[in-house]
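Researcher: Batch entry, complex prediction.
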Amino acid sequence: MRELIGNMLMVVALVFIFSGVFGLFKFKDFYPRILISSKVDTVGLITLMLGIIVKSGLNFFSLKVLIVMVLFVITNPLSTHSIARSAYNSGYKIKKEKSEKL
Amino acid sequence: MKFENIVLMILAILGIASLVRAVLGPTVWDRILGLNLLSSKIVMAIVVFAFLVNKSYLLDIAIIYALFGFVGIVMISRFVEKRGEL
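Model: Structure tokens for the complex:
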């Protein structure tokens, strides 16, 4: 029963990560790309680590996986903010969408 | 073939797909974004592999990789922002 719940959580995590990579190719501008891919990627990592913790049970291994998860949740939004801040301060303009012309 | 092997294969395919965006991105920041996504995919793959072979010391490599990836991405973006000066 515990393995079944863990496998289902890992499949949900793979769906999240795939939608993040799919959004990386769908949008034409830089800011929608960085918005979609970074958010969905963090959610995918949290769900994958939760699936591994559920499959492994409470022991020394799952405690270290929890440490990796907390560290990644802190550092990934910071690096994404750093990239977006670099693009904005360098003068990268947002392109006008087609709906404004109509 | 266990279930974790299939997860590792799909993670490898997604990592290659995010590396394609880093190769053909139009601007510099698209390339940095592709490298950031590849780094997170590698951290996930290391954790799944450590669960597959049931060795606990492989998770230390994941912690070190996440920290060095964070410092590297912040330093590259500051380098681009300051136009050549750190």
